[in-house]
């Protein structure tokens, strides 16, 4: 029987799994894998400029294509640079398979050069992690990794590859099937529980759907919209669930939670049945747990058994894939009498509409509404901070648009590399990244990747000269003590006791141009539309548009930390 090296088997396995793109950064422990990849033409190799950016790119590639994202990095620092991205993907249920190089087996545990126990380090932030200690196990482990990553609640899987194992000769066979004892993901719907929940839905006077990221992950959007229309039950979403129904749908209320719409939060507080699908009920949407949906019976559909009744006790638990569950719902749901309830919600919307005060200066809402006007077939990627909240409040997500963001971990530096991964996977869509001036600088080196891959991204930087979200908390709850948030502070600031400030660093326009990209600075709202029109002309290079924003622009509504959904700060 023909024998091949582990390196050759890995490349064969990737092809068998349908992998067409790898995000990789080389090193001594993976150089032989890189050499094998060099000899083939079926898999595209993307070389980012930092491993943290690399894993975010693979993450967004997976979120926007439905495929498994694949990473390849070397041992030691290459592997540890994946940690933040693995945690990001784990929180947001993104299917990744990450291959890390490892020193040869005799050196493991001896503090060898670039040796770390990456499986141990990442055990709590991966769905599964394993080191390959025997060459004969390699094919089976790779097959299992892809299966585990994409089935059940999707998530990141890490495979650590000792260099001597990969050099060893062994079988060329790659398994066709997977049989993992103890891992049998349930996708079937318990019809008894589902029918019980639907009876409760029919009887409720104030029913409400809560759609989380699980609806988007399962691609259940269209059938869920049909269910909503049949029942005429209003919908609120988490940030990750935005787009579960089109945001311009008359039954969609808005996001709930810390920066949710007034009507959304009031609807949750007043509903008598909360029918939730694919959400973890984390603290950013619940506020005080004992006062969340106090009048409601709660139905919870989730693919992850551990997510049900972990934070919020539910009355009807249903462990199922969102698409399977919603498809079954669509067969059995009936119209619900919600006219009076919807009238109440409409009054809340009218009483406190989600809008910013009219200001002469350019504000975030002006920018996002221009994006809504000019782009109808697009992927919007955000970083984390005020701009993220503004985007999730005002961005319209309809059939041909998608929003990707770091929802669970809240990872600054995600937006730019996510846009790169999304564009590589969706070359026919417009891809727009929205970042703050802080988060943009965390992975700004990826300009090189975007320029060399000829990606016509549009990168919007909301520059308010501060780390805006922390500054907002400092303004509202810390007596305006702006500690560690002024991005212009430094030696001059300290020397003059805050009386003098240097020019902002960097000059984003010049920095973009130094990489070979286009840079535009916008100071006034009347120039917003022209900036986007100019950016659309660049078909082979990214364009950075710096929007100079007043630091006093705050995200409202806002629930004070530790408060309830009814304790909304509306504006100041």
From TrEMBL:
The residues covered by the Thiamine pyrophosphate enzyme TPP-binding domain are: 383-547
- Keyword hit for Electron transport: no
Q: Where is the Thiamine pyrophosphate enzyme central domain?
A: 194-328
Query: Sorted alphabetically, which SUPFAM superfamilies does this protein's record hold?
Result: DHS-like NAD/FAD-binding domain, Thiamin diphosphate-binding fold (THDP-binding)
Please list the GO biological process terms of this entry.
isoleucine biosynthetic process; L-valine biosynthetic process
Q: Which domain of life is it from?
A: Bacteria
Cofactor binding: number and manner: Binds 1 thiamine pyrophosphate per subunit. Binds 1 Mg(2+) ion per subunit.
Q: What is this protein called?
A: Acetolactate synthase
Species of origin reads [Ruminococcus] torques
Gene designation: ilvB
């Amino acid at each position: 029987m023909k024998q091949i090296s582990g390196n050759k088997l890995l490349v064969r396995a990737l092809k068998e799994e349908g992998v067409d793109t790898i995000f990789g950064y080389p090193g001594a422990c993976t150089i032989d894998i890189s050499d094998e990849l060099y000899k083939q033409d079926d898999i595209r190799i993307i070389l980012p400029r930092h491993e943290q950016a690399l894993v975010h790119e693979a993450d967004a590639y997976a979120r926007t294509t439905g495929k498994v994202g694949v990473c390849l990095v070397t041992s030691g620092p290459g592997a540890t640079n994946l940690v933040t991205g693995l945690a990001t993907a784990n929180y947001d249920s993104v299917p990744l398979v990450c291959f890390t190089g490892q020193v040869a087996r005799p050196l493991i545990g001896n503090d060898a050069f670039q040796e770390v126990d990456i499986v141990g380090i990442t055990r709590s932030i991966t769905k599964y992690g394993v080191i390959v200690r025997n060459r004969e196990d390699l094919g089976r482990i790779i097959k299992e990794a892809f299966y585990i990553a994409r089935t059940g609640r999707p998530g990141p899987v890490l495979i650590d590859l000792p260099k001597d194992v990969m050099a060893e000769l062994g079988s060329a066979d790659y398994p066709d099937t997977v049989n993992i004892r103890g891992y049998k993901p349930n996708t079937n719907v318990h019809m008894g529980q589902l029918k019980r929940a639907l009876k409760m839905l029919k009887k409720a006077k104030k029913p409400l759907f809560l759609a989380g990221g699980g609806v988007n992950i399962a691609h259940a959007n269209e059938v869920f919209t049909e269910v909503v229309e049949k029942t005429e039950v209003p919908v609120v979403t988490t940030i990750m669930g935005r787009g579960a129904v089109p945001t311009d749908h008359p039954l969609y209320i808005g996001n709930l939670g810390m920066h949710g719409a007034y009507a959304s939060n009031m609807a949750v507080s007043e509903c008598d049945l909360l029918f939730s699908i694919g959400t973890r009920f984390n603290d950013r949407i619940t506020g005080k747990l004992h006062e969340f949906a106090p009048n409601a019976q709660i139905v919870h559909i989730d693919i992850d058994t551990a997510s049900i009744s972990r934070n919020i006790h539910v009355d009807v638990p249903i462990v199922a894939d969102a698409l399977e569950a919603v498809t079954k719902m669509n067969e059995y749901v009936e119209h619900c009498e919600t006219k009076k309830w919807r009238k109440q919600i409409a009054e809340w919307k009218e009483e406190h509409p989600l809008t910013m005060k009219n200001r002469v200066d350019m504000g975030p809402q002006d920018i996002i509404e221009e994006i809504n006007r000019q782009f109808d077939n697009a992927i919007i990627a955000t970083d984390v901070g005020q701009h993220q909240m503004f985007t999730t409040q005002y961005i319209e997500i309809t059939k041909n648009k998608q929003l990707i963001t770091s929802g669970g971990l809240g990872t600054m530096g995600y937006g730019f590399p996510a846009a790169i991964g999304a564009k590589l996977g969706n070359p026919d869509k417009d891809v727009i990244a929205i970042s703050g001036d802080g988060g943009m600088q965390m992975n700004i080196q990826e300009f090189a990747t975007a320029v060399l891959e000829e990606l016509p991204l549009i990168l919007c930087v909301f520059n308010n000269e501060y780390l805006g979200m922390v500054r907002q908390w400092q303004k509202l709850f810390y007596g305006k003590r702006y500690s560690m948030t002024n991005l212009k502070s430094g030696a001059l600031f300290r020397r003059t006791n805050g009386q003098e400030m240097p020019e902002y660093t960097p000059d984003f326009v010049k920095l973009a141009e130094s990489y070979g990209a286009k840079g535009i600075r916008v100071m006034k709202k009347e120039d917003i539309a022209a900036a986007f029109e100019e950016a659309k002309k660049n078909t082979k290079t990214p364009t950075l548009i710096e929007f100079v924003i007043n630091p006093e622009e705050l995200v409202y509504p806002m629930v004070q930390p530790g408060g309830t959904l009814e304790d909304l700060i509306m504006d100041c």
